[in-house]
Structures are given as structure tokens and as C-alpha cells.
Amino acid sequence: MSDLLNRLGYLQTRRDRTPNLDLARDLAARDDIAGIREIAANMHNDNKNIHSDCMNVMYEIGRVDPNLITSYAADFVKFLRSKHPHMVEGASAALMEISKVNPEFIFNNQVEIKRIVETGSDTAVEKSISALAHTAADERFSAEVFPYLLLHLSSCSRKDLTERAEKILPAVNENNNLEFVKTLKKRLESLSGSDFTRLKKIIRFAENL
Predict the structure, then answer these.
(1) Which end of the chain has fewer CB atoms surrounding its CB within 10 Å, N or C?
(2) pLDDT in tens, the chain (209 residues)
(3) Rounded CA separation 144/107 (Å)
């Protein structure tokens, strides 16, 4: 096993992900393209613990600098079809970061990402909604993607509504804020307590754009 892979949490017999985070930050700080390439290749490792840790490192690199993982965007889309939930969630997290610098890629692969919104775990859905929101923030793609996000807000569960509305905020602007507000107001009375208060704040913010 290479020195680089030996820094993974699994190979250090660690249950936490701190070693993966440290490795990601180190690779990103040094713009270590060769090191990142090795980690990316091992997202396909036969050992599920190694490939899971490598996925973790990749999306943590993306949090530091999304440009460092855009070369592997197509791989992340393929991992959305993985049988392993952690790989799907990790791929969704990576695509969310990529959406901030390459929304066109997300737009061109929106069918796969929307499939995760409809079928994925809560974590994968939230990351995918964020990826679509950053894509819709680009005026080239807003007309097609933003209505889908509104439809999601009108149909998602009450417990998820406020969180999802916050994720979609990057796509809201002076041209579409009234539609956004109208969609949220229709569901406001179904909420109570802190969720009601949070959604009211989101509505006020959007109204003032």
C-alpha cells in the first residue's frame, strides 16, 4: 500500500474521519495533482473501506477548492448509481462542490441528480438539491432548473421544508423571488415552532431581494 493510502482513516484503524480530512487539506494546500489522482483512482478500490475513505477525501478536497476535483466529475455521476449509500452520498457532496464552479456540468447531468432527489437518502437529497440550486443560480440554467426546485418545495415533507428552502436560496434572485415566496407561503401554516420561525425569516429575506 502506498504511503498516501496509508494515511486513510481505515488503514490507520481509526473509526473517525479526521485522518481523511487532514489528508484532503494537505493535498489541496499543495495542489498535489498526482496525489489527488491516486486518491481518485482508489475510489474504485475493491476494498469498500478504502474506496469509501477515498470518496471522503475527494469531497473534502472539493470543499477546499472545487476546481481540484472537477476532472473527476463524470466519475462522481457514475457513483450516483453505486449500491453503497455512502458512495452515493459522497458523490452527491462532491457534485455539490463542483456545481459552484461548473454549473454547466450539473445542468448536463441533471437527470441523474434529479433521480437522487427522488430516491436518495436525506443526505444525498440535500446535497443534490444544493447542486441544482447552485446551477439554477446561473442565469443560463435558471429557467429550466428553478421550476423543478419550486416543485420540490411544494411536495417535500414538512420536516424537510425549511432545510430545503435554505438550500435553494442561492438560486433565488429579484427575478424569481416572488415565485419562491408564493410557494413557501402556501406551506407556512402547516409548520409550527422553530420551523415556522425559520421559514418566516427565509420568506422575509427573499422578499427583500
Answers:
(1) N
(2) 899 999 999 999 988 999 999 999 999 999 999 999 999 999 999 999 999 999 999 999 999 999 999 999 999 999 999 999 999 999 999 999 999 999 999 999 999 999 999 999 999 999 999 999 999 999 999 999 999 999 999 999 999 999 999 999 999 999 999 999 999 999 999 999 999 999 999 999 999 99
(3) 9
Locate 21 and state its grid cell.
480530512
Please give the DSSP secondary-structure letter assigned to residue 172: -
Give the CATH number of domain 5-159.
1.25.10.10
Closest to 117 measured CA to CA, from 71, 67, 168, 73: 168
Return the amino acid letter for 147: P
pTM of the model: 0.96
Across 24-45, b (16+ Cβ under 10 Å) vs e yields beebbeeebeebbeebbebbee
What SS3 class is residue 43? helix
Residue 190, burial from CB neighbour count under 10 angstroms (0-12, 13-18, 19+): exposed
Helix H or strand E encompassing 80: none
Cβ contacts of residue 122 below 8 Å, gap of 6+? 160
